[in-house]
Specification:
750 residues, alpha+beta, 11 strands, 11% strand, J_dom_sf, protein transport, DnaJ_domain, transport, endoplasmic reticulum
Length: 750
Amino acid sequence: MGQKFQYDESGGTFFYFLLSFLALILIPVTIFYWPRKKKRDPEEEKRLCHCPPCLVKREHQKNAEPWRGTKNAITKIVIIFGWIMLVLLAYKVSQFDYEMANFDPYEILKISPGAGQAEIKKAYRKLSLILHPDKDTGNEKEFMKLSKAYQALTDDEARKNWEKYGNPDGPGAMSFGIALPSWIVEKENSVWVLGLYALVFMVALPIVVGTWWYRSIKFTGDQVLLDTTQIYYYFFHKTPNMALKRVIMILAASLEFDKKHNSEIEERQSDNDEVPQLIKKLPNLNEKNKERPLCHLYSIKARAIIHAHLSRIPLNPDTLEKDRRYIIGKCPYLIQEQVNCVNQLILLAYARRIKTLPNIETIENCMKLCPMIVQGLWEFKSPLLQLPYVNDDNLKYFMSKKRQIKTLQQYAQLKSEDRRALLRSLSDDEYENVMKVLGKMPHLDFQITVEVMDDENPTEVTAGAIVTVTVSLERKDMATLFDDNEVQQDFEEVVEHQEEGAADGDQLEIIKRPAWLKQKQKRGGGKKSKKVTTNNSKPPPVKPAAIIAKKVEDSPSSIKAKPKPEDDSADDSGPEESSDTNQEKSSGDESTAQKSIPEDDDQEWERFRKIHEREKSLEGKMKSSHPVHCPHFSHDKQEYWWTYICDRKSRTLLTAPYHVTGLVEHETVHLKFTAPIWPGVYSFTVCLKSDSYIGFDQQKDFKLDVKEAPAEITKHPQWEFEDSEEENPLDKADQESEYTTDEDLPEDED
């Protein structure tokens, strides 16, 4: 049996190629691009804020894409048309298979399988008169099948071939059809075929790739124009200590707001009248600045819109309000780029590549601007204005003679009737919205641990060592604060009820106060002490209970530490004494168990914990945490945070700001820096700043007791090299520590 390759003359194999190609494209396109209408859960609707600014924002988001309905309809029509073509092609291919695989001569001649030769000839004559091509009812294709069927039943050799191979002609040659029509390789069509190839691969494809590349090289990884980044570098290098108003000016000068660099910007004739009128309402705008591009019209317009946004001045909904939504929506990404630029300049200053070192206040002002933009508030405004329905008229109730409520945390810790009394001017539905928003705001537990990883003694810091500060963040809703107060109130009511019952002669039941409630009261009472976790107070590593129990059982010291059976007289003691005795026994057993665990196992477990945390930190960053209540911001926002280490005394930044973007419940961040090269006690600060809310920043101070580095190993004679040049005294001056120890400070600063 031979083999034969041929182009598809009849077009049969081309349908196979077309069917597979269309299915390969149509299935993923349907999965990813079929328009889906999001069905909102009724419970989710109840959890949303229904204050007027939030309702207006959701309406704007719904109408942000006017062509969305038409686009979805066209997408559906195209996908449905593609599936119809796929079904038709599949049906046509199935017919090809049916014709080739179901050749039955008896069925074609319409006779029974046991018919004789006379009956076969009679059926053939009858059908040939109908299907012959010369007749009006003729069909050449059907007549060829009829002739093959007659031959298969009358000729002995053809009958054997049909019974053996399923074909009266025998096995024949195996044919491989190329799923391309033959006219492609014909000589007279070669010019057109080559022209088509040249048009697709030499013209269209390079143009598409070049256009994409030309557009992509204009932007950074965060989709910020490179020219905008150059503007940031120039001004932050020029002004190392930049005030907040100056940061706003640099932000407004971003080329994303210029029509020449961004085609999405709209320039209207009405701007010539509306922008000057808006500038008159805004003090300290500094619109007469002559620096370029701060003096350009697009920069002044963007600056005026940002100031109006922070002052919550209403704008024309048909003109400047549209510009405000677009400009404010771009600001968080641009502010993050500003933070990155200042950090890069600080690194260049440390590397002696630039002379001026940007001040830490500059990068903190950039971070401070982000929550101001998101919430639409100036920094000097009360954080309570972030709640819905709360305005300047309501704030007078928060600043009464009895209490001074300045933060959202203080308001959340009040009793429920006190919280309601402060907002007594609101209706029940409005107050419910306020509590709904307040309860979803973040309440962070911020802890730090200082250590030197991969060292024999991780708690001892030597000069020049790599110090790792582990920042542990635990995020809870603000609702936990006023929930705890309600539990406390319920507990007090129960105690009062029991005391009344005891006064009436009823038996007083002993109700133990919850342990967590005791701890909370202890923290609240007495002097306020700042809790600082230093390298000398490192908490012991947490170990699984099963491993500890097994090691305690196996160790011989644990057998000796088992308590002896006591007399029955011990059972006669009161419940308090027995509980105290049990606590002493358990604490003694735990201390004995801790001593019984070998030190090698402690080190091994600590090493395992560090490796696990490092692997977790290397995973990709999430970009989803918790939604932010920001009715004055253009888009939906997620909670993000910055954390870094700085030296407040020398006003320097020790670590690059780490952007925490996936804090759902727990997050661990490792910040590393090099310890000072001179021994002494240094004070540093770990800062945590929110990019979404005002008044939620935290910081923790820690002291670093830097010891002198151990003596170097004695050099072998073959390792000793003579210095050809004497050490420059200027180099010694450069090696002095840029940090300030506590001993160097004046007495009033201590």
